[in-house]
From TrEMBL:
<keyword id="KW-0418">Kinase</keyword>
<dbReference type="GO" id="GO:0004674">
    <property type="term" value="F:protein serine/threonine kinase activity"/>
</dbReference>
<feature type="domain" description="Histidine kinase/HSP90-like ATPase">
    <location>
        <begin position="23"/>
        <end position="134"/>
    </location>
</feature>
<dbReference type="InterPro" id="IPR003594">
    <property type="entry name" value="HATPase_dom"/>
</dbReference>
<keyword id="KW-0808">Transferase</keyword>
<dbReference type="InterPro" id="IPR036890">
    <property type="entry name" value="HATPase_C_sf"/>
</dbReference>
<keyword id="KW-0723">Serine/threonine-protein kinase</keyword>
<dbReference type="InterPro" id="IPR050267">
    <property type="entry name" value="Anti-sigma-factor_SerPK"/>
</dbReference>
<dbReference type="Pfam" id="PF13581">
    <property type="entry name" value="HATPase_c_2"/>
</dbReference>
<protein>
    <submittedName>
        <fullName>Histidine kinase-like ATPase domain-containing protein</fullName>
    </submittedName>
</protein>
Amino acid sequence: MKSLMDGGTSESERPAPAVTVCRPTSAAEARVIASEFAEGLNPPVTARTAQNLLIVVSELVTNAFRHAGALCELRLSAAAHTVRAAVEDPSDTLPQGRAPDWSGAAGGFGWLMIQRLARTLTVVSEPGSGKTIMVTLAR
């Protein structure tokens, strides 16, 4: 670590990890929030990471509304090497993959995409209290 005399920074001068907590009312609103979050990060994320974050957020929020009936909270955070999206919803039912409907009528692609894009994927479910799905992406 560089000393302050060498032009380094102290712990108090380093930017705090970026965090956004919100309750979007639609997947479209969540995508705007995620896009603004990614654009505001310094150092910036790669274009691929920004795109993957939008896909993950859109799918998580869509699934919360579609399968749980509501979204409790969307949390976005970033650290030095990762970006994380977490969605909390009121259902304690765990996500289940299914065969995609290739005609496009019934979906089935979202959970598979989330699994493919995630560096890590964690689902925490509390019976009667809902669940939180956390996805970490490489920055």
